[in-house]
Write a structure and sequence with these properties.
Number of strands: 7
Strand content: 15-25%
Radius of gyration: 19 Å
Oligomer: single chain
Strand order of the largest sheet: 4-5-6-7
Helix content: 25-40%
Number of domains: 2
């Protein structure tokens, strides 16, 4: 757990925490044309924590962390489509976290701070029991869920009685969208 170097009863700190809690990601650029957050929180006026610590705290405002049965540390967003993201690799949360930090502070997080933050988040993820992750197809409560691969997390529930849509996990390479009555 990170140690704060400011008074949590300070009105400036309380306002900053409220901004962090109000900041919600959106799927694309804002109407103003910048960034992908409706409202990027500012940093506390006297925040003397390391950049890595600030990155970890920002990550905690966006994602829950866990571990897959394959041993991969992963992140699940608090809100929006429940698309699992890995902590390392080409589609990890690292770039999004760096972008959020820059929008939040006006500063760029260095590679070492990002690496340190991701290492802490991976350790945090490993505290949890492993869970199986489904890439394209999942079997849940007697139904088959087929991920359509949309960025919105659209999936189709398939049962013996037919199929219907829902919003669940996503993958960026979409298969053909099913059409009712098509063979």
């Amino acid at each position: 757990m990170s140690e704060a170097t400011y008074d949590p009863t300070d009105p400036a700190y309380v306002e900053w925490v409220a901004e962090l809690q109000a900041a919600q990601p959106t799927p694309g650029p804002t109407a103003a044309g910048g960034g992908h957050y409706d409202h990027a929180p500012s940093v506390p006026p006297t925040d003397k924590r390391s950049v890595a610590t600030q990155l970890v705290d920002l990550a905690d405002t966006r994602w829950h962390f866990g571990i897959s049965t394959e041993g991969e540390a992963c992140a699940l967003p608090h809100t929006g489509p429940q698309v699992v993201r890995m902590l390392t690799g080409s589609r990890s949360i690292r770039a999004e976290l760096a972008d959020l930090f820059q929008e939040t502070t006006g500063k760029v997080a260095g590679q070492q701070a990002l690496a340190d933050a991701v290492l802490v988040l991976e350790g945090r993820a490993r505290r949890h029991e492993p869970v199986p992750l489904a890439l394209r197809v999942a079997y849940v409560d007697g139904a088959v869920w087929l991920d359509l691969g949309t960025l919105t997390g659209e999936a189709v529930k398939i049962t013996a009685g037919g199929w219907g849509g829902s919003r669940r996990a996503a993958d960026p390479v979409p298969p053909h969208r099913p059409v009712r009555g098509a063979a």
